[in-house]
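I would like you to help me understand the sequence and structure tokens below and explain how sequence relates to structure.
___
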Amino acid sequence: MRVRTCLVILFFAVGLAACGKSGVQAAHESDLTPQTILSLDDQKFLNAAERAEIRENTLADQALERSRNLQVRALATNLHDDLGADLTELKNLMKAKHMAEPAVIAEEVHSEAANRLTSASDDAFDHEFMSLLTADLQDTLRIFDSASQTAADPDVRNYAKRVLPSLQANYNKASDLENKLAGKPRQ
């Protein structure tokens, strides 16, 4: 029995020596601190936010290229500027949290969003754009509102809180313009 215990201790000691570092040493040398480890919900929010911002920016680019309506173009310009800054900040946050998405994902989201308006005729473009944009902004607003209240990581929560007011303002403008173009009074 004593020999067996000695053998187990010997194998354990040899195993530790072969690893080179104790678990405690490896943990201290790792850059995975509480500031960089994200909950699954925070990761899901960041991925959804990135996709939404790419999608909405792509829709705004399409409007800048195709719309003849000055109000639609003004809204698209405002969105493009806001989303460009927000997306840059989001990518920096994701990088700081060690979770950059592959460029292929961004390209797929961009292509999918661009394809959503390709079949719209020039006459129907503004209505289609406003309808898609308003629905997309409403969904984005919902996920940002939730993250601003429930995100576990303070950096993620602060990002959502910071972007939320401009998102709300853009949604309100888009909704008003959509109703105006459709000839409906403000709801």
Remarks:
- The helical segments are 2-19, 23-29, 40-66, 70-96, 103-115, 122-150, 154-182.
